[in-house]
Amino acid sequence: MSLKDVKHIVLVLSGKGGVGKSSVTTQLALTLSLKGHSVGVLDVDLTGPSIPRFFGIENEKVRQAPGGWIPVPVHAAQNGHGRTNGNGDAAHTNGLAKVHGSLACMSLGFLLGDRGDAVVWRGPKKTAMVRQFLSDVLWGSLDYLLIDTPPGTSDEHISLVETLLKEATLEQMAGAVIVTTPQAISISDVKKEINFCRKTGVNILGVIENMAGFVCPNCSECTNVFSKGGGQVMAQEFDVPFMGSLPIDPMFIRLIEEGKKPVYPEGTVIDGQAMQTNGHADSDEAETAGLLVEKYTACSLYPLFDGMVTQLLSKIEP
């Protein structure tokens, strides 16, 4: 089993499509990495694999090795003096750099001939693919493995949970993060995912309410386009922890789609932290320079995820 050296496994679930599970998974992974943890991301959304695009590695291919697949690296670990190479030795850089752990991904998107190819599979083939991902990916030693799932409670979820409960230890199975949006129509479907977790014995680590507001790119206002608070009410109803609300930030979309470092209007303050303003325009080269994980620290969502990940760590590693 390729999971034997993985310390903690966290599922990212939702009964509703389009609530931002992949976005949340991406930012949880980046934030855990910024806290110095080694992280893997497994994308089991077989018909809509979007994790490669979020990390800017969709043109990469998986390499074969004796015994399985080698996941695609996003970035290597960095110890504060420079990036490490594959042997764990520090590569030379000028001056101190921010510490972050290694990050790697596995997705069906890396195995498709073209990213526009449709995956037209029946249930048994999906089940077999999920099991193969859990058994044949050579993650090595990892602090956290985040598993991004498709919406619903169908074949992939059943196969995933059955295999994990059979092969992973109780210490490894940290639990699930549930993602919802504030609207009642979304919450009614997400409630089914909470019931699914309870029926299958998966611990619920918390609920994240996504898209609860819109950060205007032209001023410092955050408007609750889809209302706010529905996720918190649902969490209270089911007696599960509420981790917080997240707004829609166009600068995060710009970071993912264009690779440009986020900048904000003067006066933008998120969670008590002033965001980098666009008072002086950087060149395109300067905006796109650096690793994704480094540029993400300038995003308005990072302080929010930093608080959420601190909550998660207190539950998983008390």
From TrEMBL:
Source organism, top-level taxon: Eukaryota
Binding-site residues, ATP: G15, K16, G17, G18, V19, G20, K21, S22
GO BP annotation list: iron-sulfur cluster assembly
Cellular location(s): Cytoplasm
A Gene Ontology cellular-component term: cytosol
Major location category of this protein: cytoplasm
Keywords of the record: 4Fe-4S, ATP-binding, Cytoplasm, Iron, Iron-sulfur, Metal-binding, Nucleotide-binding
InterPro entries to which the protein is assigned, alphabetical: Mrp-like_CS (IPR000808), Mrp/NBP35_ATP-bd (IPR019591), NUBP2/Cfd1_eukaryotes (IPR028600), P-loop_NTPase (IPR027417), YlxH/NBP35 (IPR033756)
Amino acids binding [4Fe-4S] cluster: C216, C219
GO molecular function, one term: 4 iron, 4 sulfur cluster binding
Biological function: Component of the cytosolic iron-sulfur (Fe/S) protein assembly (CIA) machinery. Required for maturation of extramitochondrial Fe-S proteins. The NBP35-CFD1 heterotetramer forms a Fe-S scaffold complex, mediating the de novo assembly of an Fe-S cluster and its transfer to target apoproteins.
Family, similarity comment: Belongs to the Mrp/NBP35 ATP-binding proteins family. NUBP2/CFD1 subfamily.
Designated name of the protein: Cytosolic Fe-S cluster assembly factor cfd1
Naturally occurring in which organism (per UniProt): Friedmanniomyces endolithicus
